[in-house]
Write a structure and sequence with these properties.
two-stranded parallel sheet, Chaperone_Skp, single chain, coiled coil, OmpH family outer membrane protein, mainly alpha, unfolded protein binding, 197 residues
């Protein structure tokens, strides 16, 4: 089961853009010249995170994906098992249908039709449950990352944190010196290890 991260990617971008932290104090000297943003003496106020790398390296996301994949496989095996049992029952009926009376055939066909409908409903419910759980886990992941990014931006003095993803490129180019992905992943993984203990 493939985990959809487009909602997460979009969510990180929206949350990161909404992060407005510590305002830099303005110079009181009216004649003071501003240093260009590209100057090495001035700290960057806008940085970005590569969400593809973040997700591929974030242990919490890996564990979450693995849990959801396992649940999806179990549900698939369960539905498949029930479907095979139903197919065997249909095959048995078809083998012996010639020996049954018209009333018995009609009753058996009605029972099999009900069973088929129940199987379809069961399959739909199992799929819906997996999707709900996936949406819930993605929401938790988004909240976890967004909350972390707010604190991270405040601590580092960033006014804006953008996200970059090949699938949804909101940042078309970013100087590598503005890429804080590795720092973010390291801190997130350290925090997650502490949570697991």
């Amino acid at each position: 089961m493939k985990i959809t991260v487009s909602r997460l990617t979009l969510g990180i971008a929206v949350a990161a853009m909404a992060v407005a932290c510590n305002q830099k104090p303005q110079t009181t000297n009216a004649t003071a010249e501003k240093t260009p943003a590209t100057s090495t003496s001035e700290k960057a106020e806008i940085v970005y995170v590569n969400s593809d790398s973040l997700l591929s390296k974030y242990d919490y996301f890996k564990d979450m994906s693995s849990r959801l994949e396992d649940k999806g496989k179990k549900a698939q095996v369960d539905v498949s098992s029930k479907g095979q049992a139903f197919q065997r029952e249909v095959a048995e009926y078809q083998k012996g249908a010639a020996t049954l009376s018209a009333d018995q055939r009609a009753a058996t066909e009605q029972r099999l039709a009900r069973k088929q409908q129940e199987l379809q409903t069961y399959n739909q419910n199992a799929s819906a449950q997996i999707q709900q759980e996936q949406a819930s886990e993605n929401a938790k992941l988004y909240d976890k990352i967004a909350d972390f990014m707010k604190g991270y931006a405040k601590e580092k003095g960033y006014k804006l944190i953008l996200t970059y993803s090949k699938a949804n490129p909101t940042v078309l180019f970013g100087d590598e010196s503005l890429n804080v992905t590795n720092d973010v992943v390291k801190i997130l993984n350290d925090n997650y290890k502490k949570e697991k203990k």
